[in-house]
Amino acid sequence: MVKDFFRLAGRWVVSHSSEILAVTSTALTVTGVVFIIKDADKAHEVINEERAIRQKSKDTLIAAKEDPTIKYSKIACVRDHVTSYVRQGLKICAKEWKGLTALLFAELSKYGSYILLKREISTISAKFNALSSAFAAYRLRVAGLIGEDKEQMLYEGKEVTANVDGVDKTIPSAEDWGADFACYYNKDEVENNFAPDAATNLDTFYRVQDWVKQQLFIRRDHIVTVDEVKKKLGYNTRNKKDVGAKAFGLHLDADEVQKITDAMEQANGNISSAFKIAGVDKEFFSLTEGEIKNFLDTNSMLLQPNNLIYLPRIYS
């Protein structure tokens, strides 16, 4: 239990290291400024002390010009001034060491965050370019099989009838994609987290639905895949039936994200209420009252994803 906690915590720290360093940099900057202001009086005393020493040096130089018995040259005066300024700087650093140290580590944290973000952006860009190239090559192959016009219709999510290997086949529209991932939510198909009690399973089902909305809203790409949802429900997605489950899912566009953001205050932070207030319908699985009642009686129901998007189209 403890080992699992530390392993998960370690993974979280690694995956959010750039954000952690950025926050740390901000916190250290504020701390450093506070310490510098707090110790400002000590630094001011050092400045006044060294200023008095430099003034005494000037007075001695003036006196030496009027009295030949006083041996003090202009070069000696300049030397004493330079020494005074260096000593003043060192003393101020000694008095303000807490604030200066905090600011130093703030800059190091900021630089570390920049390096990590740069590396993350490079990795994401490389993956995006690879995915874009692969998808472009895939589109060319499809266009070669069914023609450019029909490939464009397929790309737009429209139903297409094309001759493939000498046989006329109907390629389903986007609305039919969910049929490929239809599954029964029961003890025979769910490997994990399925309870003997139907009410418990229904509660799990609703919590996963809320999790989907939360992830759709907070993620940078605003995407959740079929594969993720089925794993969350307890399915084993490493089978032929779920091939492609990572390529389909739900997606929020910029307008939908803004609507939900505006609705969050009215919804008191409740993500499901915010979706409802914003008028954004993004449910992987929609159930009727009759289906819910039947599930509570039988502890089994057919789930068919809807509102699915072909994700490579979003990335392209």
Topology:
Layout: H1 2-15, H2 17-38, H3 40-66, H4 74-95, H5 97-146, H6 148-155, E1 160-164, E2 167-171, E3 183-185, H7 198-218, E4 223-225, H8 226-233, E5 248-251, H9 254-264, H10 271-278, H11 289-298, E6 301-303, E7 309-310, H12 311-315
Antiparallel strand pairs: 1-2, 3-6, 4-5, 5-7
Provide an overview of this structure:
- This protein has 316 residues and is mostly helical.
- It has 3 domains: 2-110, no CATH class; 116-171, no CATH class; 175-315, no CATH class.
- It is 65% helix and 8% strand.
- The chain contains 12 helices and 7 strands.
- The protein has helices at residues 2-15, 17-38, 40-66, 74-95, 97-146, 148-155, 198-218, 226-233, 254-264, 271-278, 289-298, 311-315; strands at residues 160-164, 167-171, 183-185, 223-225, 248-251, 301-303, 309-310.
- The strands form 3 sheets. Strands 4-5-7 form a 3-stranded antiparallel β-sheet. The protein has a two-stranded antiparallel sheet with strand order 1-2.
- A hairpin with a 2-residue loop joins β1 (160-164) and β2.
- α2 (17-38) packs antiparallel against α5.
- The two termini are 42 Å apart.
Sequence of strands across the biggest β-sheet: 4-5-7
Instruction: Report strand %.
Output: 5-15%
Number of strands: 7
The description of the largest β-sheet is: 3 strands, antiparallel
In short:
With about 325 residues, the chain is mainly α. About 65% of the residues lie in helices and about 10% in strands.
Name its key features.
316 residues; mainly alpha; 3 domains; two-stranded antiparallel ribbon; 12 helices; 7 strands; 8% strand; elongated
